[in-house]
Amino acid sequence: MQKDSLVFDLIKKELDRQRNGIELIASENFTSYQVLQAMGTCPTNKYAEGYPGKRYYGGCEVVDEIENLAIDRLKQVFKCSWANVQPHSGAQANGAVFLAVMKPGEKFMGLDLSMGGHLTHGSPANFSGKTYEAIHYGVTKEGFVDYDQIEAKAKEEKPKMIICGASAYSRDWDYQRIRAIADEIGAIVFADIAHPAGLIATGLLNDPFEYCHIVSSTTHKTLRGPRGGIIMLRNDFENPWGIKDPKGNTRMMSQLLDLAVFPGSQGGPLEHVIAAKAVAFGEILSEDFKSYGKQVIANAQAMATSFVNRGYNLISDGTDNHLMLIDLRNKNLTGKKAQETLDKAHITLNKNAVPFDDKSPFVTSGIRVGVPAITTRGMKETDMEPVVEMIDKVLMNADDEAIIGNVRGDVKELMKQFPLYPELD
Ligand SMILES: *Cc1c(COP(=O)(O)O)cnc(C)c1O
Fold it and tell me: At what angle do helices 335-344 and 384-396 cross, to 10 degrees?
């Protein structure tokens, strides 16, 4: 067969784009070459509906070993007793959690999307907001999660579940406080650690497993694995909420969650991606990944300082994790304009609503900046100031194509020092 050069040329073009730019999208990262290799392999051909040892198809003995290896390694990473590695994405993982524990119309509480939350935490445009009754908490005017508001609203509204976790929040979470609030009303605490999971895995942020009943994550953000989702329990438990499976039986929480992933919301698992997850989890257990986590935080701190020194207004005045949210209103720029202008210089990040934003979600007053990807490329604290200098130069000359063109050249030159997938040359 002739090589499909139309597609492979585009893939090469995308590789060049990734190599030549500065990637600051907080939810992105670069997997290892081994993770990439594992994804492009033959388990993609295998139907394996069900779970290891309990499949609906023959010939699953090898994919059973692959999936069990992924589960065992993930359990080691987060010191948990049960894990499901089948969710195709973070949103799918969250969908399964909802399906397992909530009946349509029941009430839950999550961080407002406009304050840093995620679509699956009750946006009216998402299944979570359409199927269930979503109520929201926000952040204080200083930009920290408003735990007093969580407490007051929880007592008034008595949601069945409280979600902690965010997509654009630069501070750590007080899981202990949320659990204490939940215990007063008998609510389930569900932590969605899609963003900071890699920093939690390395012990650099508070441990949600100590206080949250259920934890979900993506695998492709700070965990640096293939695109996918996971669900975990530190300790399995018989659910005290009397939640039943579709046949009306009371089940252990692990069983409710397994049933909600398959057959509840997915069909066959992506065993090639699960193989890549296993590779990534193996990497996370290494000393190298511990250093990576520390470097991510060091880089975020250094970058935050550089922005502040240039008069940028950081929400909550700083960061505990891998990202920062910047309010551009004092610079007379919108998030949209900043994103589009930086794109021209091959500096990639996203516009983002800031808390109490007066602009639409399509325009926004802010940008979200994250360092997981550039840290994987090998950048250190001392590389942050030059990066911020380039961002500032572009933003302060947003209508000067010549200056932007010069920065684009500088960006390409800089990134040559940090090779990406040299194996592919
Ligand atoms: C990214 C993210 C998700 C969803 O992940 P997808 O893989 O894009 O579906 C869920 N929750 C939070 C908090 C996220 O940041």
Answer: 110
